[in-house]
Write a structure and sequence with these properties.
This protein has 17 helices and 13 strands. The protein is an alpha/beta fold. It folds into two domains: about 100 residues; about 200 residues, Rossmann fold. The strands form two sheets. Strands 5, 6, 7, 8, 9, 10, 11, 12 and 13 form a nine-stranded mixed sheet that branches. A four-stranded antiparallel sheet has the order 2-3-1-4. Strand 2 and strand 3 form a beta hairpin. The N and C termini lie far apart (about 70 Å).
Length: about 400
């Protein structure tokens, strides 16, 4: 592929990403891979160059662009060499038309600015789009961090989680024996700290109410191998990924698929039995924009309102599961006050007999009834975490 053809390929992929963001379709990474599966003529250098162009355009535009061409013209506005490739040559993009508009450069969508936690100051915004490192969580039930640090000499020890190692963003570990043997799992340090906030120990009964593919449940099992862990979710496909991961890690985790709308009835046998319930709730995903920058294009005021109502319902659903004196940990991978401090305050308003308890990890900043981790302050994904204790 010549340079102009690479630009045209990036435009075509960006059109797919924009449509997927509008229609809740596949993520950008999947679309890039799918595009090149049917274009075998593109070499590895071509694929890398096109992917870089795609993500330059995605990271630059906070609002969903009108088209892939508009998105890439925005990049060209700041890059003369790229602008020269809009030359109308064969297999390349047509020349720029007089008055043709390009996408606006911004980090955060305008409507989101007022929703951000007050802790996320303007000078912190660029960190929301920096490339994230690859963090590993060491499976302490089977090995030690020192042993894994020796196995990954290129890794740094994570600053806040005593379970973690940090590698460069592009590191591949799928073919490493330590990964195949379940000695390490890929997990952002902030996500590890959610499990730390649960303070798992002994033979507790722990319920992960929104387990997804089970990353937090696996962390709980590694920290407390004797605990009874029940991982629940309404998404069959995501929950199905946990069983092979648990087998690889040597973790005993019970999975429970819950029908949406019938959660209370299907969890009735667990009422009052949990020492801790973790509600790592579905959210805006604003805390992971550095990993999924097109997430800004997917988020709308209506979607934010829907997930905020769901978070409230899940917190209330968790309450009867907790034994007297037990704990509930609420987490959201979000930097928005509505999903964080406001959600936690509202919970305490609805359940006035519950009390707030400090979380047990270093890092983050106090944000109302909880703590907020941010990429700029903590070098983690963005998470709000709060811990509540049930009345005795």
């Amino acid at each position: 592929m010549n340079p102009s053809a690479r630009v045209q390929a990036a435009i075509e992929i960006l059109d797919l990403v924009i449509a997927a963001a509008r229609d809740d379709g596949p993520p950008a990474d999947s679309l890039v891979q799918r595009y090149f599966k049917t274009r075998r003529y593109a070499g590895s250098k071509d694929r890398k160059a096109v992917r870089e162009l795609v993500y330059r355009a995605i990271r630059r535009s906070s609002e969903r662009p009108a088209s892939g061409r508009s998105a890439l013209l925005g990049v060209a506005d700041e890059d003369r060499e790229l602008a020269a490739l809009f030359d109308g040559s064969a297999h390349g993009p047509e020349s720029r038309r007089d008055g043709e508009e390009s996408s606006r450069a911004a980090i955060v969508p305008r409507w989101i600015e007022a929703e951000l936690s007050p802790l996320v100051m303007p000078e912190e915004l660029p960190a929301l789009l920096e490339r994230a490192p690859l963090d590993l969580r060491v499976n302490l039930a089977r090995t030690s961090r020192d042993a894994m640090a020796a196995a990954f000499p290129e890794a740094l020890l994570t600053a806040l989680s005593p379970w973690g190692l940090r590698l460069a963003a592009d590191t591949k570990i799928d073919d490493r024996p330590e990964f195949a043997d379940g000695l390490v799992e890929v997990q952002d340090e902030g996500s590890q700290l959610i499990a730390r906030a649960c303070a798992p120990h002994g033979d507790q009964t722990l319920i992960d109410l929104c387990a997804g593919a089970g990353g937090k449940a696996l962390a709980l099992a590694a920290a407390a191998p004797a605990a009874t862990i029940v991982a629940c979710d309404t998404n069959r496909d995501r929950l199905a990924k946990l069983a092979p991961r648990a087998a690889r890690a040597g973790a005993a985790i019970t999975t429970r698929l819950i029908d949406s709308g019938r959660e209370a009835a299907m969890l009735g046998d667990l009422a009052g039995k949990a020492d801790l319930v973790l509600v790592d709730a579905p959210c805006s995903g604003s805390g992971t924009w550095r990993r999924n920058p097109e997430g800004r294009w997917r988020l709308t005021p209506e979607r934010l309102e829907r997930v905020a109502r769901l978070q409230e319902r899940l917190l209330d659903l968790a309450v009867p599961l907790v034994r007297p004196g037990g704990a509930l940990v609420y987490a959201a991978c979000s930097l928005l006050a509505r999903e964080g401090a406001d959600q936690a305050r509202n919970f305490l308003g609805r359940h006035s007999s519950w009390t707030l308890q400090d979380v047990v990890f270093d890092g983050g900043r106090a944000d109302g009834p909880g703590r907020l981790l941010t990429p700029a302050h903590d070098a983690t994904d963005g998470f709000f975490i709060a811990r509540f204790v049930a009345p005795c």
